[in-house]
């Protein structure tokens, strides 16, 4: 399976042209407002550049928080935060990296990266060696005599295993007849007889109608479209031949069933094992260099020390306190919150209307796609209406708050092209850029792929959604519980608080009672069904089923009382510890029927409690999770300007307490590679039609290219005398 990219560079060229016209403005047009380019009467000239003027109308509309006297002293253009259409389309106006890293720091970081990657390089080498040995055995040759044919694979192509959908980066097996491709993990599992067939599973929720979602009766059964439950077909066995060779699988699971799969390679012969050797060599060179420096009494770099002949590279004395603190927490798999990142920025406006104006220049977008959080469905809405609701709120006819989330706006893979100035601003705000800078982070494995290789889409992405402080219990503006393959950083760049009227609050109380009654009614029905089933055929289940008496059952959505606090944050986060994942999963498997998902339908089936992304734990569920399993997430409110670092593999969920604009970016740190690989393996085992399945990160490919690049950079650094 292959997919190709089309790299469109034409948009970038346009930006350059516009940039030029912004810098070299004709002096005679000075009376024209820089922002709106019209010659209005009331203008404020800038005392600094003595060139640009901004009209008072624009100042009021687009710079409402900057006093006019400040603008007269130094105009937005001089401050670097002008949000006129031309400036918003320019990139490179501000410096995005916060500090220059010294060569000694670079050496230390690269050493750390290579050292962290060695165990994974070793795993990759062993797997490749084992498969080559199997092939030697089949052909009656020595492993060194095995000739492996190269597959034609373009750099801008991705090859996936046709069975488990993980990315193939080098050795694999391929059918000469139908070009079915199989990864080495699958080959191994077939030989060990533990390969799972991963049949498609039926999904889908019934739409029981608008009334049902608001706590009333469902539409009569006859209106409901029955789900098509696919009966699992006869189980297909896929076994290896006696000599270890593998035949292309039968048509039912995607192959031709005819030919033996041949061992193929993508990279040059021995490329990875050579790289492994080079990595070891460069590390020992670094150690010798450090040792010589210590002998010469030069210990200014402070990196590592010789102790009983053992080298330790853990010392980070010369790095600032904050970075060290971050690294310690990060290595333990704990999230990190950094306050006030907006203070580091040039003050560009994150007002959604400013971003929208910038986008309108490039895309015609009268309508946007949004997710209605109650039904969990996509809706189309007029863009202006959406943003009106962002600041003023929206409600259904019965006054229940209508929570909308913009879907993929601006289109995520084009953020950098469409909003170049905002992209620069976001990167400049990022703390710990060594880890997360999407262009040059020295410890970010995701930026080490060669230019020609197709890169994963890691953002930045914008998330614009409504929110309300009170937990609704149903239709809340949430990102449901999920777990990302990579690390991520998320900055809250803009909020808008929407006040609910007394009339609305009263209507909401009534509706909540209805929701509760519906929850209880359905819970009783489920219990009756379960009991009937139990008596008829499942009497031997014994103590495995825990029954909840109706009096005890409190419904899935008891909202917590809104405490009377002065200042609330923008978004409520719950991040779970990796070590709590088994208990969290057990809780969800036990209680899934108490949750609602699409069309507010109760969840009927769990494939994977976290990767399904169909649960949000309300305050009541969190309380019970703590009571029954002793599991408690890190819970905190993200305030405006705060950056949240989420380590790969920590399940998390978010609820918006205000209308929020967040910008998030994925990255891959050396500390969490183990977790990325564990998750990749978990995703591999999901059914073939599961939404989370595809290996978009291609983590193993990332590892080998990161080591290659780091070895190259490190040898350049230590060979230059300083
Ligand atoms: Zn103007
Ligand atoms: Zn100026
Ligand atoms: Zn401007
Ligand atoms: Zn596979
Ligand atoms: Zn075939």
Automatic annotation (TrEMBL):
Cellular localisation: Nucleus
Its primary localisation, in coarse terms, equals: nucleus
Q: Fetch the InterPro entries from UniProt.
A: JmjC_dom, LSDs-like
Under Gene Ontology molecular function, one entry of this record is: zinc ion binding
Q: Which cofactor is recorded for it?
A: Fe(2+)
In this protein, which residues make up the domain named JmjC?
438-684
Report any Pfam family annotated for this entry: JmjC
Keywords in alphabetical order: Iron, Metal-binding, Nucleus, Oxidoreductase, Zinc, Zinc-finger
Record keywords: Acetylation included?
A: no
Task: Please give the GO cellular component terms listed in this UniProt entry.
Answer: chromatin; histone deacetylase complex
For this entry, list what GO says about its biological process.
regulation of transcription by RNA polymerase II
User: What the protein does?
Assistant: May function as histone H3 lysine demethylase and be involved in regulation of gene expression.
Q: Which family does it belong to?
A: Belongs to the JARID1 histone demethylase family.
Q: What is this protein called?
A: JmjC domain-containing protein
- From which source organism is this entry? Gossypium harknessii
